[in-house]
Amino acid sequence: MAERPARPPNPVVQLTLMRLREMAREPGVLFWVFGFPVLLAIALGVAFRARGPEPVVVGALPGIGSEVRRALAAARVQVKDLDADSAARELRAGRVSLLLLPPAGPEGELGFRFDPARAEARTARAVVNAAVQRAAGQTEPLAVADHEVHEPGSRYIDFLVPGLVAMNLMSGSMWGVAWVIVHMRTRKLLKRFLAAPMKRRHLLYALGLARLLVIPAELLVILAFARVFFSVQVTGSYLALFAVAVAGSASFAAIAIAAASRAQNTETVSGLMNLITMPMFVVSGVFFAYSNFPEALQPVIRALPLTAMCDGMRTVMIDGAGLVDVLPSLVVLALWGVPAFALGLRYFRWS
Amino acid sequence: MNPEPSPPAVLCRGLRKVYDGGHGIFRKPSPSVVAVDGLDLEIQRGECFGLLGPNGSGKTTTVEMIEGLLAPTAGEVELLGRRWGGDDAKLRERMGVALQETYLPEKLTVAELLTLFRSFYPKPRPLAALLADVELEEKQSAWVGKLSGGQRQRLAIACALVGEPEILFLDEPTTGLDPQCRRQVWGLVASYRARGGTVVLTTHYMEEAERLCDRVAIVDHGKLVRLGTPAELIAALPGGHVVELEVERNGAALAAEELRALRSVGEAHLSAEGVWSLAVSEPERAAAEALALLERKGLGLARLGTRKASLEDVFVALTGRHLRDG
Predict the structure, then answer these.
(1) How far is B108 from chain A (nearest CA, A)?
(2) Half-sphere exposure of B134 (CA within 13 A, CB side)
(3) What top-level class would CATH report for the domain B10-233?
């Protein structure tokens, strides 16, 4: 083929090159694709790595005896001395989790004032109670042994990194495709390409292809970073991981084409993108497990494309899954991507 | 070239375009706008045809309907003997288009952009030839965003020439360019025509239409006002000469009727800048009569000049407006 210089260039290749060149020559794009997720991982990783167990802080009203104080100090509970006014205020603001009330009543019982709806208040009650009971001579009737978790694979950062990877691929596909389409439309470049005999589908292929070509680099940067600094491992199949990444990116690129199919300016499409992505950032389990949401919402959440991608990434990275195990995620992503692409192509506006 | 009578390059019959007013849920309803109102045009092969009119006169809409980028509300378009809606890709390969404003991708180099456009055509013109056409050989590795306005316009024309088109559409090719860049663009058009091409251009520059066009259609409010060669149009103007008159302080102190009443003055128009243009056949006599009128009314003269009539004067005479007034 090299012997035929007269052969005209291939349009899909040229359009893909256009996108890759624009990306590579725009420093801002490089930051959002590679720099931002790394910074986010650093911030969250540092926030969650160095932290030991939360200290329990309680407030003591006047009249709490030194015996109780000694017992609490031994259990590493911090005690703040407060008067009646400040005590109510500190409890409301959550700066103390529980208030110790001086012994009262016929049997002189120690009082615990706390809001049982707050997890840290319940923890404080259990810890304080155990400390004072032990000091008063109670022994634990049943022997237990604590096994604390610190090894890679079950820390928060291990949970977080696959979520960040999924989120980043989603953002990259959505903005990298939808915003670019609308930008080209407002600048009349779509019209100009159409006036030349460019085939419409070639442009859409090229936008998708340019995205897919960036994925390996994007994955590599984030995963290498997570491995070097946080020892986050990929325990499962890299092929499966790549399959989820490609299916997810393609699916979101298709959703982006649908979102950008008619938007006449970048403001509209930005709003639309936020409308689509923000709810998924919250419910799809990027930062915390979606099992925290009510049972009734679970089927809806599991049907979302970002959830499918996060789940697929986590099964591979944490649970050591292979290609077969991520099939359900791939199916969900395809069920979003294919109709979205058809819809986008059907209603696509070129000028 | 062709022994058989070939179809005209462009044929429009009763061409009409109405833009619907907004009637969406969120938008306030607005009245619909008639951009092109029943236009008939026939452009011959090898001709350079100009559409002349102020902004908003429907030039761009007309051209985009001919290019198959906009669907007409009514009427027919034939380009090179074919209609849109058949084998459109084939037809697009035979035409070249430079839109009124296209922001070409700024982060590509000139050569990369031309290669991209070359990929859309089955038999593209060689890159070196395209660069030579528009004299951008030295800029082939420069980013599009770093080019000057004139260089960018030449690049846009090079993109239009990629497919060796039979017909070239240029929508306001020199708007916003300085005189030297404008002359360079004119040179491009001339050399393309020398290769046998047909050109359709829109402009609101008189000089451009007079220099480049074999025939000119003057359009206003989406309608054809007059059609002919530049010389024919100018000759149709009463007199063929223009006296320009500026009154001290206030041009409106004179009434058009007073000037038209002068024996040797055909038409009289006051521009937004306060200059009276009088269409005349004997400039010296008309000037003398006008001066006498000023003296009778006790008005001072700021400036007086005479020149040959141009297309601008034709336009003013036909529409009562200046082209640039928009």
Answers:
(1) 7
(2) 27
(3) alpha beta
